[in-house]
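Shipment paperwork, digital attachment
Item: protein structure file
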Amino acid sequence: MNKLSRRDFFGPIVAGSFGLTFLTKGNASPQNLLGKRVGIIGLDTSHSVAFTKSLLRGDAAFKGYRVVAAYPQGSLDIVSSTERIPGYIKEVTNMGVEIVNSIAELLEKVDVVLLETNDGRRHLEQALQVFKSGKRTFIDKPIAASLKDAKAIFEAAEMSNVPIFSSSSLRFAKGMAEIKNGSLGKVKGADTYSPMKFEKTHPDLFWYGIHGVEMLFTVMGTGCKSVQRTIDEDQEVFIAKWKDGRIGTFRGIKNGKQDYGGTAYGDKGISTLGPYNGYDPLLIEIINFFETGISPVNKVETLEICAFMEAADLSKKRNGRAVNLKNIGL
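Attachment content:
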């Protein structure tokens, strides 16, 4: 594992009065933040900066939580991630966030954790360190880079009695909650779409297509039986069958206009999914989770999403034949 010196963290940073002004503004002094101090693991994703900025606004829905410390090291070898770290260190430092040299040091300074590392392969290793502290943890998508690691994360969290949850922000896009809560009656089927970018270290859908996959499972629920993958130069289509006979599809957009959305078909109506409305809806759910310890996303659903994405890769290897999720070890 690469070790980062204090010079690595602070070399590009001038920790001046700008950051300190933010940290001590209003009720945001360290004394007044006890119980609401958020720590971030991984400054290799824009999510870390976005969450820090939103919490700094102090909206009532965020209940006084603030990011006070961050451990920057996320991915060790994904260049598109590692090259972001110095710039994101500077951005969060200017918002009053203290940079620390280890997860252990971070855990001494915070009450709850956002595990934001962009590299799902590192999530199990990093999460295990957090679980020992007993602190509630949100794990950004993907929860891991394999179904095996995702299972191990949940098992370790349960053994340590640590509440966790993982989600894409698209789960909370416009209209999703209403449909999940029955606005269309029973959802008979759904079609979703999102950009589909690839990273060679991750199974195809784990890196970015997970956004559209999570939208599909949010409205369809659990019980997916199989998935079949069709590949074209500009797009890929994943046809999934549920155990009760329902059909859902995810379209991954590789080229052309990039966007997120879909359609849900219910026995009382048909509705558009989306558009995407930023990170704040997810962040509100995270804060509610930190307060209650109750996850808004079922563990079974998160594991089924991982199995779906692994089955989609197996379908690719089998020239588009349908793959039963049982074959993936769900």
